[in-house]
Design a protein that fits this description.
14 helices; alpha/beta; globular; Aspartate Aminotransferase, domain 1; 37% helix; 3 domains
């Protein structure tokens, strides 16, 4: 069986988790901070906050950015539903803009048209998605966002290790905080770094970082500088207000959530992160082999191609008779996948007023797209079998 994606767990990973399981902390321990610091160094940002999963990362980010009921936020329809749902969790209104058919990314021209067609203040933020691992030009989006007073939340779940090149010719890592207010990542098993479940939020904004830490754990703080109640109240008896707060004391200051990460997941994450560059290199090599195999093939209507900075979580091709190919590959024990059903045509969003024909580029893409097996342990022989099976089908 050849799946579209697969985790790679080594003996070093197993050993790291075993050490964590034998330690003093299973959760809220020092390994989580160590993983956050290692990840922020890898990405090149100031702060990182580990959470339960990528959806939790999106939800907490929307809360930290103060999304309010009725506020309009723009995102892509070609993404996992959580990219949009996080806005709905806060009562916001999701406005989908169409994709660029060449990159499959949110089309900045379509976003600009939406913004310019509405009074200033109509929209409050943009959630661009690094779909398949292809990095969004966040410098361009930052400029547009600044012109209209918007925040940026980068969904980089597909793109740890990915980058785009800025106007000065410098690579800018996905999630490095140079342009987006916040960025989020996922550690689901098919992602580059796998911890079973898990997610990360990155930022260069200390105020947002502190807010995320509070929201992650029930809205509770143990930071004495932030306490609002008196020391006498905390102690349960009159005390000198110059004394310290008692060691047990904490305060819930806002409505938060239990979106915590565990120490044994963090140990696995640190181990996985140690070979992240190796994994990216292998993914890019696989992409190059796909690109070469399908060059000038008449049945290829579009493909991810080889793009500088692409992290290749997915390798997507567009083909005629996608359903036939999908079923044929399954018969060969090749389990390709479809990414994604356009979010705006999910029944939930249809009920909110979205219809077929609203976003023609995304809808045309969906009719033809199929994601081929892409993971570091995919062998050349397995990939050759995938390639030959596709050629056989169209022959």
């Amino acid at each position: 069986m050849i799946p579209y994606g697969k985790q790679h767990i080594t003996q070093a990973d197993i050993d790291a988790v075993s050490v964590a399981l034998q330690g003093d902390f299973l959760t809220q321990g020092p390994t989580i901070l160590a993983f956050e610091q290692a990840f922020s160094k890898y990405i090149g940002c100031a702060y990182a906050v580990a959470v339960a999963n990528g959806t939790a990362a999106l939800h907490l980010s929307a809360l930290a950015l103060n999304v309010q009921p009725g506020q309009k936020i723009i995102t892509s329809p070609i993404t996992f539903a959580a990219s949009a749902n996080c806005i709905r969790y806060c009562g916001g209104e999701v406005v989908f803009a169409d994709i660029d058919p060449k990159t499959y990314l949110l089309d900045i021209k379509k976003v600009q048209a939406l913004l310019e067609a509405a009074p200033r203040g109509t929209y409050h933020g943009i959630v661009p998605v690094d779909f398949a691992g292809n990095a969004v030009d966040l410098e361009a989006f930052r400029k547009l966002a600044n012109e209209h007073g918007l925040w940026l939340l980068e969904d980089a779940c597909h793109a740890p290790g990915g980058f785009f090149t800025d106007g000065n010719g410098q690579p800018q890592n996905c999630g490095n905080g140079q342009f987006a207010d916040l960025a989020i990542f996922s550690f689901h098993p098919v992602k580059h770094i796998a911890t079973g479940e898990g997610g990360m939020i990155t930022t260069n904004d200390e105020k947002l970082y502190r807010k995320l830490l509070e929201l992650r754990t029930h809205g509770i703080t143990r930071d004495t500088a932030q306490f609002k109640n008196s020391k006498s109240f905390a102690a349960g008896q009159p005390v000198d207000e110059q004394s310290s707060f008692p060691g047990w004391y904490m305060e819930m200051q806002t409505l938060g959530y239990n979106y915590r990460f565990t120490d044994f997941q963090a140990a696995l994450g640190i181990s996985q992160l140690s070979r992240a560059d190796e994994g990216i290199a292998r993914r890019r090599a696989i992409a190059e082999r796909y690109q070469k195999a399908f060059e000038n093939k008449t049945f290829i209507q579009g493909q991810s191609g080889v793009v500088a900075g692409h992290a290749y979580h997915l390798y997507v091709i567009e083909v005629p008779n996608r359903l036939g190919l999908y079923n044929y590959l399954r018969e060969q024990q090749i389990f390709a996948q479809i990414h994604y059903i356009p979010c705006h045509l999910m029944p939930y969003y249809r009920d909110l007023g979205w219809n077929e024909g609203d976003l023609p580029m995304a809808e045309t893409y969906y009719k033809h797209c199929i994601s081929l097996p892409m993971y570091p342990t995919l062998t050349d022989e397995q990939q050759d079998f995938v390639i030959q099976s596709i050629k056989n089908f169209y022959a």
